[in-house]
Structures are given as structure tokens and as C-alpha cells.
Amino acid sequence: MEDSEKEMTFLDHLEELRWHIIRAAVAVLLVSVVAFVWKDIVFNILFAPKRGDFITYRMFCSVGHFFGFESDFCNSELPFTIQSRTMAGQFSAHIWTSIWTGIVVSFPYLLYELWKFISPGLYENERSLAKGFILIASLLFFLGVLFGYYLITPLSVNFLGSYSVSPEVVNQIDIDSYISVVRSSVLSCGIVFELPIIIYFLTRLGIVTPHFMRKYRKHAVIVVLIIAAIITPPDVASQIIVAIPIMILYEVSIFISAYVYKKEQKKLKLNS
User: Fold this and answer.
1) Predicted model pTM
2) H or E segment to which residue 173 belongs
3) Mean pLDDT across 172-185
4) Measuring CA to CA, which residue among 238, 224, 218, 228 is closest to residue 195?
5) Cα dihedral: 21, 27, 29, 33 (round 10)
6) For this UniProt entry, which segments traverse the membrane (predicted)?
7) Taking Cα atoms as reference points, which of 13, 198, 204 lies closest to residue 123?
């Protein structure tokens, strides 16, 4: 570390943090403005999982035909409509959707600003990991976003939008409710796909070990299957399709944890 970085006071750190937050907010704002202007493209993407010809529905329909059974995913249109019940409902949805789009698209830059803030407190060899960290974390996040959009979202929308307790009840979904399902599905998957990165840092901190993860692998399988059962329609095929990528991430995280753990143990032996 440089002497100037060592001599920074608490207020200096707060000032530095403030500028990182400002730059991150400006980045989100700029992307949000673009998303606000191109609302036709954004909302066409947002409402695509509602249409019966969405690529995921066609894929599941083809799989059903291949195995010789009729699938609920072959419907030409889902049995619900989206409505706005307040004067400012559509405008509010437009604003917040643009902001969330800005956050998702700007994610790599947000990571960059976070790293720039914490990097002065790291050693030189740890700073060299910045490019790899930002690239891998961003890639995993966007893979999670795509997984959430093309798999979790359509499964959730199809099940919840088609669910009925009685023919007397018509599903007329408020726009905020629909967007909330899409947003939570996409963002939660983006965060879940950061599991290898989280395990990397937890292992370096000594909180998690590969032995611990292997020991509780069976428990992890049960938790993943429960999560898959909650967020998918009530059929085994959908649950397995959702659970497999998450379990693959878990296994990759064990490998990463083992690699980091070995390196940390070697460092301790050299220092002792």
C-alpha cells in the first residue's frame, strides 16, 4: 500500500465511498434513461413470457410431443390479462422497470466501483485479481439472469397465471404484480449464480471449507429440490430441469473451495 492510502482518515474513506456511489448511480441513471426511451423494446422483452409462442413454451411443448403426451405449455395464449388499476400505474411501472434495467445492465460497472473502493486495502497480488473477478462475477450474474428469464420466469408465469381455484374467478393480473414476478425471478437467479464467487471469498475468510460442503451435500440437494418445487409448476420434469444447474453450481463451488483451501493451507505452512 502507498503511504497516502495508509494515512486516509475515516472521513477520507467516506468521501471516497461517496464518489464511488455517485459514479455508480450516474451509470445506472444513464442506462435507465436509455431503457426509458426504448420502452417498446424493454416491455416487449418483459411481456414475452406471457405469450404462448415464447421459446421456452415451444421447447417444453416439443419435448412433450416427443415423449407422446400433451403438454400444458402448448397453449397458444396464457389465460390471464395484465391490467393497470391506478392512474399512475403504467407510468410508475415504466419508471421502475427502467431503473431496474439500469441496475441489471450496469452490474459489471457497479462491481468495478465496488472493487475500486476495497482494492486499496488489499495486497498487490490480490489487486491483480480485479479483472478476473469482475469478468467472472459479471458472466455468472448474466448467466443467472438468462436462466431466470428463459426458465424460471416462464414456468412461474405459466403456473401462477393459469392457476385457478374456481371457474368463477378470472385472472386479471395487475401490472406491478406481473413485473414483480419477472424481476424477482431474474434477479434472484442472478444472485444465486454468484454462488462460486461467494464460496471463494468465504473459503478465504475461513468460514467455509470443502469438507463442510461435501459433508452437507445431501442437505444441499434437498434444499435445492424444495426451492425448485416452490418456483416451478407441480411436475417432476420442471423441478429437475431447474435443480440441475443449481447443483452443478454447488459442485463447482466445492471445487473452488478445495482449490482456495489448499492455497491457504500452503500459506499457513510457509508462514509457520
Assistant:
1) 0.82
2) strand 172-174
3) 90
4) 224
5) 180
6) 21-38, 93-112, 133-152, 185-207, 219-234, 240-261
7) 204
